[in-house]
Write the structure tokens for this entry.
Amino acid sequence: MSQMPQQAAVSKCPSCEEPLEPGDRFCGACGYDLSVVPARPEDSPTLAIHGVVPAPDDVDWPVARDSDGHGHPAPVHAAAELPGTDSGGSPLPPPPPAAPPSAPAVPVAPAGAPATGVRFDRPGEPEEYPLQAPDPRLTGEPAPVPGQAPAPEPAAASRQPAPAAPDAAEKVCVACRAGRVDDDGYCENCGHAQPRERDHMEQESGPIAAVSDRGLRHHRNEDAFSVGCTALPDGAPASVAIVCDGVSSATRPDDASLAASRAAGETLLGALPRGTHPQQAMHDAILAASQAVNALADEPATAREQGPHQNAPACTLVGAVVTAGLLVVGWVGDSRVYWVPADRTTPPARLTEDDSWAAQMVAAGLMNEAEAYADERAHAITGWLGADAYELEPHTASFKPDRPGVVVVCTDGLWNYAESAEEMAEAVPLDAAARPLHGARVLVGHALDGGGHDNVTVALLPFPAPSQGAGSA
């Protein structure tokens, strides 16, 4: 009688890393067949794929491939492009070089002696049962004479060549570090699904930086950001950061956030050098982002017929422009901007108001803030970018801080774990203005340590904006 395949005891899906319940045979998020998951070897290293094991501070993250270094958005990095580390944070050894064509694939044992097999997942460890020498009656070869030297091996050209190693330009599997990755995102060698490019993103542009991570509970990252530096007509420096959060209940939220962040970032970096006032430029950037998201809803009629109940792509947006003496913020939705002064003895501040059900209840005097945010409807947004938005109302505001500090632009994936201005200031490192990328990594780590229930994105901008010659990349 045939038996059902036994499931390996795993707590997370090996394909999308969603948490599993005991007894699950298929992943509830991606449908992965858990019966094919092999048992975890006790002595194999654990690979950190998407941030479960924090990366050391000195990791040299690559620059986004489609960024020109001046802040044009689309900061995406494939996890396969990053150096692998074991569970202790040490670099993984490089894959073994391919054997030369003239070398035998396995050692030749004396005739009559059992050949020893080698496990490729544990090099150098013998199999439990040795491979037996072939029976001469089946191969047609004469039986070896005891005491006689073995016959010479056939010429190298007649032997089966070893499989070629992946080319340097091809993606290498993050699990086995040897197989090629197909266009469908799976390894040809071990079949492991590769991490998506947007699972973890980092970008540094001059004195500003941003980090985005998919978190510990979501199967994809629906956040996106754009950071960049430019100069005003008088030569004064200006820093720009846009952070977008896809609306998960909408269709294609990841595409919406990416389109919005690109459009808003490009609009700001193009308008500021022409002399447009930063607050007007921010307003125009939000309108441009809204048009980019609306365009995603223009699908062919056949596509709408196949998914008639799908709604339009949507996202929220928050941004900041920092110059030598002016700080401008703009937003639609519930992402936020915080002001954290360098002198921590002075109070920090939140510079945006949420477009959310809770904020409306507080503004109308129907609830206090504690009651409103304790309600299950608290995070229901009342403003967003998308073709089905009720009415687009871009919010903009200008500030003139009287002291240096750091501007924190983030999604609710971060501020859920540091909601008040005082909590956010406590989480921001003291050297965040001098080391913005490190500071952004620390804040993302703060959210992951708190539970990582949502995608996490944060950008840090020092105020005032330093000159391009100071700290620019």
Observations:
- The longest strand covers residues 237-246.
